[in-house]
Give the backbone structure.
Amino acid sequence: MGRETLQQWIQTVSQDMGRLSRPQAVTLALWSFGMAVARSCGLTTAPAPLAAILGVRESAIRERLRDEDREAAAKKGANGAALPVETRFAPLLRWALSWWNGERRLALALDATSLSDRFVALVVNVLYWGCAVPSAWNVLPANQKGPWEPHWKRLLGLAAEAIPSDWFVLVLADRGLSARWRYQEIQRRGWHPFLRIHCQGCFRFPNGRYQPLGSLLTGPGVLWSDRVIRFRGAPLACTLLVAWTEGKAPWLIVTDLPPDCADAAWDSLRAWIEGGFKDVKRGGRQWQQTRISDPERVERFWLAAAIAAVWVVSVGGERKRPNR
């Protein structure tokens, strides 16, 4: 990869990431390009391929990238405004959706992942070609007390700004993210929740009495779906899917789709999240070695990492996509 490829990437980031100043667009392009080529997010490694391509010292590239990561008051020059990361989520998601080529079906996955032992990232991911591309996120201190509900609602709202209202959107989440309010918030956006739940708790049929969810788990080989009522105190009408494959733990999933229109196997799409985080951590850009201690700095860093993921996944997707 040479200077021409880098210049093309700078132009792409400038066009597709919305209203950025020229310095902001160039720095984000440099950061993401360096991460993708070096397979590392570190300031000691990502600048190396950029310096070789541009014919400048690594220290000069490193200082430019470091300045982007500083707070607004500490930035250099007239363009020393901190990049408002949340305003970039909608352009980032629109960019990803441009790969769909007329398809109007989208799978999102919600995930809460630990970043080293200092942070928890709440992330809305776009699922595409076996990968999960972050499209909206909020980074919190790992030991911070308080509800996640306001953060998740804001992230879903920011993602909704970029998704056309006539798209079919399936939103998947694991058992720790299956709260009633989340189910209803997804519905409020006109999307379809597809939330895996724990085997504890109760349900009832519309005209029946509550019974344990465990009563449905009679053994491997179970594949069942029906309309039920969940939650005693605040009843929620939904479709319950049960799938138990030999050698695996049973899956219980709630959704608002009719039983004959939903398939428990869709939950396997969430496994693509692991591929996305492998790219950020030990299998790719070595996030686990970071020394960053400020959550806001992590959020700014993740913008460059997400753009790097967009590039890598889009290039791979073009190679996998059949000729039309």
Residues 179 and 199 are 14 Å apart (CA to CA). The mean pLDDT is 85. The two ends are 28 Å apart (CA to CA).
